[in-house]
Each structure stands twice: as C-alpha cells, then as structure tokens.
Specification:
By secondary structure, the chain is mainly β. It contains no helices and 20 strands. Bound molecules: calcium ion.
C-alpha cells in the first residue's frame, strides 16, 4: 500500500483598519480635470496670513458651513478648510488564496506560495500579522511548526514554516510600493511559524506592495499519513 502525505493550505483573508491611533495628515485629492488637480477649495468671506517669530498661519473667516458633515448615497462631505486634513485609508487583498504543496516526503521539501497586497496613505503605515494552526490531518496528527526563530529547511524532520522572501527556487521579494518583510520572516531560505507574529510592515504611506508568502513542509518517515491542511488568516492593520 502506498502511504501518501498530502498537503493543502487554505489561505483566508481578514482585514482590520485601525490599531494604533495616531493623527494622520496629508493633502486630499478632491477633484481632477485633465492635468489639473484641486486638492481643496473653500467658500469663505476672507482670510489671510498671520505670523509670529516661529509660526505662520493661513486662516479663513466666514466659512458658512465649516466643520459640518453631510452625506448622500454617493458622496460624503466634511465642510471647512480645517477638514482638508486627509482621512487615512488602506487597502488589503489576497491575490492567490490557496497554496498546494502536493505530496510530502521525508527526502524532499514540499513548497508552495500564496500572495497578498497592501497599501495605505497613512503617514504611519501598516503592519501585517498572521494567525492559524500548524498542518493537521483528519486524525488530528500534526506537523511540528518551526516556531518563532527562523531556521533553514531540513528534510527528514517535521517542519512547517513560512517567509516572505525570494528563496532558492521558489518565493519572491516584496514587489512594488515600499512594504517589506519583517523580522524572522525576512530571511531568505529560512522559515518560521509562530502565529500572531508580524510578517510585514511599512512605517509611512506607500503604494501597493505585493507580498509572496512561501510555505515549506518537511516530514519524518514516521509521520502519520493523511491529508494535512490548515487555514491561515492574514490581518493588515493601519497605523493612524
Ligand atoms: Ca507529527
């Protein structure tokens, strides 16, 4: 009888926006026409510059509806010059959501990838963490997770780990934007698995960065056969 170890990792996305609350500030692009961009406009009865030794202020007076929020089905307006401060937003999406590592072997490392992408306009950036259990089969047998400290892949022992780097023969560097792999997950050809760890971040605003998550699995010859799988949840948190 042929003993088969199969592995399927289901990757599920979750998203939170919030986390450390800080004040964000930047200009908001409110309207465009061809090459023209108007970042903000006001209706007021006047205003001007005032200054002291260390400070200069450009103020407005007579705004008829300042600091009033209004909303319709399609639009949201925060009236008033002071509301030009931009509201932070972030984007997060899973691109490839299944990593199939195929048949496991005690003499070869099984590998696979999934991908996600993140962006934010927040001045304080974002972080991404992951949650989930190690690989488990129908009989509740598990493949040992590597743990919090990254190590190299080694055949003949149980290992399950991930990283976000270009490894020898598989994986890829973060692509686009300014986001980067983090900590123990930022070492090529070394892998860790310790749920809730931060795996990616950037500390300022950034365009989309596509992250490739690489998975490795090794087994012993005595590892129980079965279909091993797990669900991994990635959570991106904006720092506002
Ligand atoms: Ca085991």
């Amino acid at each position: 009888m042929k003993i088969v170890w199969k592995l399927l990792i289901l990757v599920i996305v979750a998203l939170t926006i919030g986390g450390a609350v800080k004040q964000a500030k930047a200009e908001e692009r409110v309207s465009t026409s061809g090459d023209l961009i108007i970042y903000g406009d006001i209706i007021s009865s006047g205003g001007g510059f005032s200054s002291s030794t260390n400070l200069t202020m450009e103020g407005t007076i007579g705004e008829p509806v300042a600091d009033v929020e209004s909303m319709s089905d399609n639009f949201y307006n925060r009236a008033g010059f002071q509301n030009l401060e931009r509201e932070p937003v972030m984007g997060f999406a899973i691109l490839e959501n299944i990593a199939n590592l195929g048949e496991l072997s005690a003499s070869a490392t099984a590998t696979g990838n999934s991908t996600f992408k993140v962006m934010t306009n927040s001045d304080f950036g974002y972080s991404v963490r992951y949650y989930g259990n190690t690989l488990t089969n129908q009989g509740s047998d598990t493949i040992d997770p590597i743990g919090a400290t990254a190590v190299t892949s080694q055949t003949g022992i149980e290992q399950f780990g991930i990283n976000l780097k270009a490894n020898t023969g598989f994986g890829a560097e973060p692509n686009g934007g300014s986001g980067a792999a983090y900590g123990q997950y930022a070492i090529a050809d070394q892998f860790a698995f310790n749920a809730s760890d931060k795996i990616a971040e950037y500390t300022s605003y950034t365009d989309w960065t596509v992250f490739t998550v690489s998975y490795i699995a090794n087994i012993e010859s005595s590892t129980e056969p079965g279909d091993y799988q797990t669900d991994i949840t990635f959570i991106a948190t904006g720092s506002y």
